[in-house]
Amino acid sequence: GDSVTQMEGPVTLSEEAFLTINCTYTATGYPSLFWYVQYPGEGLQLLLKATKADDKGSNKGFEATYRKETTSFHLEKGSVQVSDSAVYFCALSSNNNDMRFGAGTRLTVKP
Amino acid sequence: DSGVTQTPKHLITATGQRVTLRCSPRSGDLSVYWYQQSLDQGLQFLIHYYNGEERAKGNILERFSAQQFPDLHSELNLSSLELGDSALYFCASSVWDTSSPLHFGNGTRLTVT
User: Which parts of chain B have pLDDT scores under 70?
Assistant: First the structure.
């Protein structure tokens, strides 16, 4: 079945460092890909999405490009802030009826 | 605030018992999804309802059941509870299906003792 694998955390960075969180997927067909973020004590929020190959999703300085050839959707940000500390989830949906999430990567940004 | 309301926030119960978790979706959203988040298994998809009809089933145990009512709120029933059912249960809603963004509630933390 469809699944998502993302790099294990936790990830600890200094403020203004470059961030990459790797995500690869296995799916039949052509899934839509997503990154969700979970701040402490809250539910998940959509960060960005891409619906077809070579699409780039972006929001709040975060970017991810849908790479069909490598089945990847890596999350990047050029300069992280303390407020970016959260858990990040990669997800996919192949059939519009269910969404599968990765295990989550906890990011801590230190001042 | 996502607009999705889950009650109760915390629930502590004993093994063998039955509990009901409630979710009110965002106004105008027709789809409701249930997820289980545990430390060792991450975020597991349980079930999706659209306008009262079941649309997809994930890793939902037979001891668990769900329904979506005509007013679109949803309930997740967990029975014959085991220690391993202790987890955070999230409800999410979307306008149509997963092609529109999912909006998550803050979850119900279930502790089975």
Answer: none
Residue A99 forms contact with B (CB below 8 Å): yes
Cα–Cα separations (whole angstroms), residue A48 to A74, B9, B22: 12, 28, 28
pLDDT for the residue B88 = 94
For position B65, what pLDDT does the model report? 97
Count of CB atoms situated within 10 Å of the CB of B96: 12
Cβ contact A97–B102 (<8 Å): no
B25 touches chain A (CB under 8 A): no
- As given in the structure block, the two tokens for residue A24 are 């690869």
A59 Cβ under 8 Å from any chain B Cβ: no
- Chain A contacts of B102, Cβ < 8 Å? 36, 44, 46, 99
Low-confidence ranges of chain A (pLDDT < 70): none
What pLDDT, on a 0 to 100 scale, did the predictor assign at position B96? 87
DSSP E strands in B39-105: the ranges are 42-50, 53-57, 64-68, 74-78, 87-94, 103-104
**CB A32 to CB B58 under 8 A?**
no
Cα separation, A47 vs A107, whole angstroms? 15
